[in-house]
Specification:
Elements lengths: L8 E4 L12 H11 L9 E5 H7 L3 E3 L7 H10 L3 H9 L1 E8 L2 E6 L4 E3 L13 E3 L5 H16 L4 E10 L2 E12 L5 E2 L15 E2 L1 H13 L8 E5 L25
Parallel strand pairs: 2-8
Antiparallel strand pairs: 1-12, 2-12, 3-7, 4-5, 5-6, 8-9, 10-11
Length: 256
């Protein structure tokens, strides 16, 4: 039978300052919660945009300081892209999967497939500065979660999200690239549907659904809303990690 009514509340924390290397994201989050009139409670979820994690962790690279590699120079000439950026993209990648003018699709060193290794120059101060993804987003999520728990006593989950494109659909969506305190997948196999039939293949990408919901508020331009508080999310607590979300290559029908 259908369950009773459920409600999830999402709140983008207001007036988050532009993040600088070394900033205390725990203190910044607590201040944002206070401005929003929120107090963390057990079971809450905090979603943080990858950009603020990268900025706080000093993942900024000045392009003038990049030593262009011969491999990057050769590829850049074919796809008409800044060879300094291509050098960074290759350094952050395990493999190049596809290219076209201005774009490189890679398997990132963290295991997922994305454009340009997630390296971005939007919402980054300075014309000659690029921002890399966090070195270890799961560890970043754990540090933020542990810091907030130490400050408030609340047992929450943290998701770090980033905007990714999809192979067969237009438009970017928020996806999880780091998690702490939740299981990224919700396995419904063995449960029954409305008519009593046993579900055999249904595994929900819970962390990605959380990431996408938060991205509706975060936006993709000048919104400056990188932190989203969520309450009422039905998730399974646990020691999850990004790797749980990644399809094993042996099961990937699109890269064989």
């Amino acid at each position: 039978m259908p369950s009773s009514s459920l409600q999830i509340t999402l709140t983008a924390l207001p007036d988050i300052p532009l993040i600088q290397p070394g900033d205390d994201l725990v203190a910044i989050t607590l201040a944002g919660l206070a401005r929003a009139g929120l107090t963390l409670a057990d079971g809450d979820v905090l979603v943080a945009a990858s950009k603020i994690i990268s900025k706080a962790e000093g993942r900024l690279v000045r392009l003038a300081e990049v030593a262009v590699t011969p491999e990057a120079e050769a590829l850049a000439s074919v796809i008409d892209k800044d060879p300094r950026l291509v050098t960074l993209i290759l350094a952050e990648s395990a493999a190049v999967l596809r290219t076209r003018p201005g774009l490189i699709i890679v398997e990132h060193r963290l295991g997922f497939v994305c454009a340009n290794a997630g390296i971005d120059r939007s919402n980054v101060a300075g014309e000659e500065v690029a921002l890399l993804l966090p070195a270890d987003p799961d560890a970043s999520a754990r540090r933020l979660r542990e810091g907030l728990r130490a400050a408030t006593g609340a047992d929450i989950a943290v998701v770090i999200n980033d905007s990714h494109g999809r192979a067969w659909r237009l438009g970017t969506v928020g996806v999880a690239i780091g998690v702490a305190g939740l299981l990224p997948l919700t396995d419904r196999r063995g449960d029954a549907d409305l008519f009593g039939r046993e579900l055999r293949v249904t595994v929900l990408g819970a962390a990605d659904e959380i990431a996408a919901a938060a991205s509706l508020l975060q936006g993709g331009a000048d919104e400056a809303l990188p932190l989203v508080h969520m309450r009422g999310v039905p998730y399974a607590p646990g020691d999850g990690r990004l790797q749980d979300l990644l399809r094993p290559k042996a099961m990937d029908l699109f890269r064989k």
